[in-house]
Amino acid sequence: MSSNKKKERILTIIFIAQILHLSSIWVLVVGITIWLLKLLLLSIELKDNLGFSVVISLITIPVFWTLAILLTYVFVGLRRNRITD
């Protein structure tokens, strides 16, 4: 196997790993968001005190979404400014 073929194969494997990582982060963030929203609905249904559920949701949902967006932004920026030899 030539050096260029080996380098292309390694770059392809790295790209696939990055895409898998990025998609798993988004699955996690969407899953956590849905879970927290279901907890809020359950709290309303059970006529429970909403204070604790609302505070947790107001803090965690934006934090997770911000981190996922930041990771996506970094990934896209690194792919856009990639140096190819």
Walk me through the structure.
With 85 residues, this protein is mainly α. 87% of the residues lie in helices and 0% in strands. The two termini are 18 Å apart.
Concise account of the structure shown:
The protein has 85 residues and is mostly helical. It has two helices and no strands.
SSE blueprint and pairings:
Elements: H1 3-45, H2 50-80
Helix pairs in contact: 1-2
Strand and helix order? HH
Structural class: mainly alpha
The helix content, as a percent range, equals over 70%
Tally of helical runs: 2
Characterize the overall form.
elongated
Number of strands: 0
User: Mean of the pLDDT scores?
Assistant: 88
Distance between the termini: 18 Å
| Beta-strand fraction estimate | under 5%
Largest sheet: none
Residue windows where pLDDT falls under 50 for at least 5 positions: none
Keywords:
85 residues, 2 helices
